[in-house]
Amino acid sequence: MRKINILIILAVFTICALASAHEPGYVYEAMRTKSPPKIDGKLDDIVWKLAPSVRLENINTGGKVKEEYVSLAWAVYDDTYIYVAFKNGEPNPKKITTVSPGHDKDVWKDDENELFIEPNHAGSKPYFHIMINAANVTQDAENGGVEGAWEPKSLESATSIEDTYWVLELKIAFSDLNVNELPVGKTWGWNFNRHIVSGVDIWTGWSETGPSFHTPSRFGDLIFSEKALSVSSKDKLATLWGEIKINRR
User: Domains of the chain (ranges plus CATH)?
Assistant: First the structure.
């Protein structure tokens, strides 16, 4: 009987450990879309107006970034791709730094956004890491995979710089993340991050990872929702979670 009780305790402990594999309190619901955004760095697609956003305001060494440097981020998906957008608050766009000489070359030193994607949801390696700076130079890696071997063929991105913010849009195919089945209803480890160089040199994120972004046990959770966003030919918005319709006038 004692052995049975010990096994039960160990099983409960294991379940609890798995349930808390990521930083609690950071959950994002990615909606499905039948009208994918155009990757042009403009954020004028209707899906970004409907999809929920999150704030990147947590400084990796503690505290919150000033409001003018807060970023917003979104994610949606369809049968083939995940689509992501960032709107990065930037009061000094002329100070934006983009000195990377090219793909996979020190993009992390620039004003840039980062994505951490962990399909296994284990709070550990392997996970995928994408960095894109304000000049749309990319860097990518599979942490826990073969060094320098991951080159996502489907990755497409675009950026633009405005008076008080800069924008990044990107898409990447599930197949490039070694996912062959649509993950509807599944949860992945995930984080939206940013490096702000322009006069402050601060690292911020959505989920609080502490000093290093590379802490998969502290990524947030991204849920691939069964709920969907769609845009009709008459530019009406419909949702599966309610009968909300918005008509442009």
Answer: 23-239 (2.60.40.1190)
d(CA 90, CA 108): 17
CB 237 within 8 A of CB 245: yes
Q: Among 145, 116, 147, 111, which residue's Cα sits nearest to residue 129?
A: 116
What's the pLDDT at 2? 53
d(CA 247, CA 235): 7
Please name the amino acid found at residue 111: D
125-148 pLDDT per residue, tens: 999 999 999 999 999 999 998 878
Query: Are 190 and 116 spatial neighbours (Cβ–Cβ below 8 Å)?
Result: yes
12, 20 in Cβ contact below 8 A?
A: no
> What local confidence, expressed as pLDDT, does residue 160 receive?
98
Dihedral sign, Cα of residue 66, residue 30, residue 20, residue 139: negative
Q: pLDDT at residue 8 above 80?
A: no
